[in-house]
Write a structure and sequence with these properties.
Elements lengths: L4 E6 L25 H12 L7 E9 L8 H11 L2 E7 L15 H19 L15 E5 L4 E2 L5 H23 L4 E5 L8 E2 L4 H15 L6 E6 H5 L5 H10 L3 E5 L27 H13 L5 E3 L9 H24 L2 H9 L3 H23 L1
Helix pairs in contact: 1-2, 3-4, 4-5, 7-8, 8-9, 9-11, 10-11
Length: 376
């Protein structure tokens, strides 16, 4: 059995329906009256029993849409009672600010967005603190999502927005340091959504951003980095394997989102040029390679499942999608551990690339078999 593997489930996955071009009421039991404490109990009752013995679960949530000052005590109690932990919290700025958030050129919007961030820190260290994992290094991630930090007009003002972003994030980091300095602060890159152009579109952009925040504002890079989001790289055709190398090489992988656009398993459609589909984790060679890379690097923090229930799924199927996502990644991890990397590197060094392909193909097959065994 592998060492303890930490997976986090996202509150926003459990919604009554997406709406818009698809039904908004497919899962009415996840609508009115179904709050975050109820979601936590559902995870404990329906998902935890389906997990392998080595898997521990946590919960991710937005402030102030899914947790706020009014329900935080109940949320913390539900986490403790369910033996789950707060794995990640993020300011839901995209729900409030459409003109750049903390990067906004409108001073009033920028200030309001900054206040949202500091209130999120206060809540994490306040009523939610008792739901943190007790082990050092497994404290929650504080993810800064890119959704507000974008623009749709090409002007010289973009550089001022970027500078605002650096200043505001630096201020947030200093505020968090005074609160305790225990959260892992991660920037989540995204190429688009909710704006056509974003200030931090790629993993490389996020790494450069943190270096500038350190140089210009004296913010320590310790516990700062990237929320690794597979799907955001996939949707513009970037290589999330190389993203992993960059994150690990810079010691900046502080959290992970294992979702997928689906295109690289040959079954689920999506991929470059498509919108953010947010399928669960998939079994494929690229994910097995990433699993091997993080194992070699000793990454042992939370692995989140930022996914959406399919627009046509009922509640039972939605729960099953989450279970499948966790088990798919565990299967990739198992296949990566079983892969003879010494033999693989020997084949690559000696240009026996067909042999290397065969080894990865066999690993994919092994992962699917492992999934079937765990799922049953």
């Amino acid at each position: 059995m592998a060492n303890k593997s930490l997976h986090s489930i996202c509150r926003w996955t459990f919604n009554p329906g997406k709406g818009g071009f698809v039904p908004g009421d497919m899962r009415p039991q996840w609508g009115k009256g179904f709050g975050t404490p109820e979601m936590i109990k559902l995870v404990a009752d329906k998902i935890t029993p389906r997990m392998p013995a080595n898997v521990a679960l946590g919960i991710e949530m937005h402030y102030d849409a899914e947790v706020d000052d009014k329900n935080a005590a109940a949320v913390a109690d539900a986490l403790v009672d369910s033996k789950l932990h707060l794995a990640m919290i993020t300011p839901g700025a995209h729900s409030h600010f459409a003109y750049g958030g903390i990067a906004s050129l409108d001073p009033s919007e920028r200030k309001a967005a900054e206040d949202l961030g500091t209130r999120t820190v206060d809540l994490a260290y306040g009523k939610l603190k008792k739901a943190w994992h007790p082990d050092p290094g497994l404290e929650p991630a504080f993810v800064i999502w890119n959704g507000s930090f974008g623009y749709d007009i090409a002007t010289v003002g973009v550089r001022s927005m970027y500078q605002n972003l650096k200043e505001s994030v630096a201020g947030l980091c200093k505020y968090e340091a005074k609160a305790g300095g225990k959260l892992w602060i991660g920037f989540e890159p995204k190429p688009n959504e909710g704006h056509p152009a974003m200030l931090i579109p790629t993993v490389a952009s996020a790494i450069v951003f943190w270096r500038k925040v350190e140089q210009e504002f004296g913010v320590s890079p310790k516990r700062k980095g990237v929320n690794k989001e597979f799907g955001h790289s996939e949707m513009i055709g970037l290589d999330h394997v190389h993203d992993t190398v960059e994150e690990l090489d810079n010691d900046m992988m502080v959290h992970m989102h294992l979702n997928s656009q689906g295109y690289n398993d040959g079954i689920i459609l999506g991929g470059p040029g498509k919108y953010d589909i947010d399928h669960g984790a998939r079994i494929n060679g690229m994910n097995i390679a990433i699993a091997g890379l993080i194992q070699q690097a000793g990454y042992a923090r939370w692995k989140g499942h930022d996914m959406q229930t399919r627009a046509y799924d009922n509640a039972e199927q939605g729960i099953d999608r989450v279970i499948r996502s966790v088990l798919s990644w565990e299967a990739c991890e198992q296949a990566a551990r079983e892969l003879d990397t010494t033999l693989l590197m020997e084949a690559l060094i000696n240009r026996r690339t067909a042999q290397a392909e065969d080894m990865m193909r066999h690993a994919v097959v092994a992962a699917h078999k492992a999934f079937d065994k765990m799922y049953k």
